[in-house]
Design a protein that fits this description.
The complex is a heterodimer of chains A (317) and B (227). With 317 residues, chain A is mainly alpha-helical. Chain A has one domain. Chain A is 76% helix and 5% strand. In chain A, strands 1-2-3 form a three-stranded antiparallel β-sheet. The longest helix of chain A is centred in the C-terminal third of the chain and has 50 residues. The model of chain A has no long low-confidence stretch (mean pLDDT 91). Chain B is mainly α. In chain B, strands 1-2-3 form a three-stranded antiparallel β-sheet. Chains A and B meet through α2, α3, β1 and α7 of A and α1, α2 and α4 of B.
Chain lengths: 317, 227
C-alpha cells in the first residue's frame, strides 16, 4: 500500500480531478518547512547556551555534538519540505497543460500558412520544429526514475546521522571513540544532505521533462508542428554540477570512513578533519549551484512557452 | 524560418491597476496592459548570476585555505586558530551567495509567470488580471532577508575571531571556542531561514499555477470562438 502511495507522488492528475482545489502538497510542504526551521532554531539556541558556558575546564563538546546532529537533520526536514512542494508544482503543471490545451482550441487564431519544420532561433535559444512530439531525453527519464529513491535514501541517512550524533554526544571529548563517532556522524549526515539535494535536483529535472512533454502535447493536440527548445547550456551545466556534487557527497562519506582509521592519532585526525569539513560543504555547494541553473532553465522555458501561447493566439501557429 | 516574437520592451502608459472583484479566493488587480516584472523579480533577473559566481569563488578560496590548514603543523596554534575561523567564513559566504542565487532564481520564475500571464491576457484582448503578491511570497522575502542577516553576523564573528585571538594563551583559546560556537549556531540558523524562504517561494509558484489554470479557462469562456 505504502509503495502504491509513494508511486502516486507527483503523478499526473486524472481527468476528473478539480484544478481549483488547493494543493495538499503545498500545505504539507510549508508545515514541514516550519517544523524544520523550529528544529534548527532549537539547535542554534543550544549553541548559544553552550557558548555561554564554555570555560577552560568544559568545552561543552557534548552539546555541540547534538546541536550539529539536530541542525543538519532539520536542514534535511526543510529539504524534504521543498521536495514535497516541488511534487505539488509537477501536479499543477499538468493541470496547466490541460487548461492551456482546452483553452487554446477556442482562443487560437487562424494560420495563413503552415510553419516549416527544422531548427529555429528564439529569444530563449535554439528550438526544433517537428511534426511529432519529441521523445523524452535520457536525463529526463533518469530524473523521473531517480528522485524518489534519492529522497528516501537521504532521509534514512539523515536519521542514522541524528542517532549517531547522540552517540557522539555521549562519548568522552577528545577520546578515540569520540573522534570515531564524530567522523561517522559528519560523514553520514552530509551523505544524507547530498542525497536529498540530488533528489531535489532530479525533481527539478522532472519539472523540465514535464514542461517539455506538456508543451509538445498542447501543440500536437492543436494539430501544430511542435516547437521545442533544445537543451540549453544552463541545463547541461546543471547536470554536470549536480553529478559532480553527488559523487563528491559520496566520496566524502568514504573519506570519513578512511579518517576513522586515524582516530587513534589526534594530530592526524585533526588534519583530516580540517579539509574534509570544507570538502563535504563543497559537495553540497556544487549541487546547490546546479539547482540554481535548473531554476534558471525552468524560468527560460516558461518564458518561451508563454511566448508560444501568445503566438498561437495571435497567429494560430 | 519561424521565430518567436521579441519580448516587449516598449513601456506602456499604464492606468493605475484597480482591485478586481473576482468572487473567489484569488486577490488580483486589473489593468489594461500586463504589469511586467515587480521589483523583487527585476532584482532576481539581475542578480542570480553574480551571486552564483560569488559562491563558486568563495568556495574555491575556502577550500584552498582548508588545505593550507590541514598542512599546517599542529604546534602552530596561532595559524590553525586563524584558519579555523577563516575557512568557515569563506565557505559560508559561498552558501549565503548560492542561497541568494536560488531565491533570485525562484523570483525570476515568478516573474516569468507574471509577465507571461499578463502578455497572454493582453494578446487575447481581455482585461489583464494579475495576482497581488501572496502572503507566501512576502514570507519568502522576509525569511531570505533574515537568513542573509543572521548568516552575515555569524560570518562576521568568525572574521573577528580570526583577527582577535592569537590562539596561544588559555584565555584566547576559550574566547575563540565561545565565539566559534556562537558563529556556528548563527550560520546554521541563517541556512535554515534561507531554505524555509525558498520553500515559501516555491509554494507561491503553486498558487500562481492554480490561478493561471483558472484564468485561462475564463479567457476561453469569455473571448473564445464559440462565444
Amino acid at each position: 500500500m505504502a509503495a502504491i502511495a509513494l508511486a502516486g507522488l507527483g503523478a499526473r492528475p486524472g481527468p476528473t480531478e478539480d484544478h481549483r482545489r488547493p494543493s495538499a502538497y503545498r500545505k504539507a510542504g510549508l508545515i514541514l518547512a516550519v517544523i524544520g526551521l523550529m528544529g534548527a532554531t532549537a539547535a542554534s539556541i543550544g549553541n548559544l547556551v553552550a557558548a555561554a558556558g564554555i570555560d577552560a575546564g568544559n568545552g561543552y563538546r557534548e552539546t555541540l555534538a547534538w546541536t550539529f546532529g539536530l541542525s543538519t537533520f532539520s536542514f534535511g526536514v526543510i529539504k524534504i519540505a521543498i521536495a514535497v512542494i516541488l511534487m505539488g508544482i509537477i501536479v499543477r503543471l499538468w493541470f496547466r497543460v490541460d487548461a492551456v490545451r482546452e483553452s487554446l482550441h477556442r482562443l487560437r487564431g487562424h494560420p495563413e500558412r503552415p510553419t516549416p519544420t527544422g531548427v529555429v532561433k528564439t529569444d530563449w535559444g535554439a528550438a526544433t520544429v517537428t511534426d511529432d512530439i519529441p521523445k523524452p531525453l535520457f536525463i529526463h527519464r533518469m530524473a523521473r526514475f531517480m528522485w524518489l529513491p534519492m529522497l528516501a535514501m537521504g532521509a534514512m541517512a539523515l536519521t542514522v546521522g541524528l542517532v549517531s550524533s547522540w552517540v557522539w554526544a555521549a562519548q568522552t571529548p577528545d577520546s578515540e571513540a569520540g573522534r570515531q563517532a564524530a567522523a561517522v556522524t559528519q560523514g553520514v549526515e552530509f551523505l544524507g544532505e547530498a542525497l536529498l539535494l540530488s533528489g531535489i535536483a532530479f525533481l527539478l529535472g522532472t519539472i523540465l521533462a514535464g514542461l517539455r512533454d506538456g508543451g509538445g502535447e498542447v501543440q500536437s493536440d492543436l494539430g501544430l508542428p511542435v516547437t521545442t527548445l533544445k537543451m540549453p547550456v544552463t541545463a547541461k551545466v546543471f547536470v554536470a554540477l549536480m553529478m559532480t556534487g553527488m559523487m563528491a557527497g559520496m566520496a566524502q562519506f568514504v573519506l570519513y570512513l578512511v579518517a576513522l582509521g586515524q582516530a587513534g592519532d589526534p594530530a592526524s585526525f585533526s588534519a583530516w578533519s580540517n579539509w574534509l569539513g570544507p570538502f563535504r560543504e563543497l559537495a553540497l555547494g556544487l549541487i546547490l549551484a546546479g539547482i540554481v541553473l535548473a531554476l534558471v532553465t525552468i524560468g527560460n522555458v516558461l518564458a518561451f512557452q508563454f511566448d508560444r501561447i501568445s503566438s498561437i493566439i495571435r497567429t494560430g501557429k | 524560418m519561424a521565430t518567436t516574437a521579441q519580448p516587449r520592451s516598449v513601456k506602456h502608459n499604464h492606468e493605475r491597476p484597480t482591485p478586481t472583484q473576482r468572487g473567489d479566493e484569488f486577490t488580483t488587480v486589473s489593468s489594461d496592459h500586463g504589469l511586467g516584472y515587480n521589483l523583487p523579480q527585476k532584482m532576481g533577473r539581475a542578480f542570480w548570476q553574480p551571486m552564483l559566481a560569488m559562491a563558486l569563488t568563495f568556495w574555491a578560496i575556502g577550500f584552498v585555505l582548508a588545505i593550507i590548514e590541514a598542512g599546517t603543523g599542529r604546534d602552530d596554534l596561532a595559524t590553525i586558530q586563524d584558519l579555523s575561523n577563516l575557512v568557515p567564513a569563506f565557505m559560508f559566504v559561498g552558501f549565503l551567495s548560492v542561497f541568494a542565487a536560488i531565491s533570485f532564481a525562484v523570483a525570476r520564475i515568478l516573474g516569468a509567470f507574471r509577465k507571461g500571464g499578463g502578455d497572454v491576457q493582453e494578446t487575447v484582448g481581455a482585461e489583464v488580471q494579475t495576482l497581488k503578491m501572496p502572503l507566501t511570497a512576502k514570507a519568502m522575502l522576509a525569511l531570505m532577508m533574515m537568513g542573509m542577516m543572521v548568516m552575515a553576523v555569524g560570518i562576521a564573528l568568525n572574521l573577528v575571531a580570526a583577527g582577535e585571538y592569537g590562539g596561544i594563551t588559555e584565555a584566547d583559546i576559550v574566547d575563540n571556542a565561545r565565539l566559534a560556537a556562537v558563529a556556528e549556531g548563527l550560520r546554521r540558523l541563517g541556512v535554515a531561514l534561507y531554505l524555509t524562504g525558498i520553500a515559501f517561494g516555491l509554494g507561491t509558484i503553486i498558487t500562481v499555477l492554480r490561478f493561471q489554470a483558472v484564468r485561462i479557462r475564463e479567457l476561453a469562456a469569455s473571448h473564445g470562438r464559440n462565444n
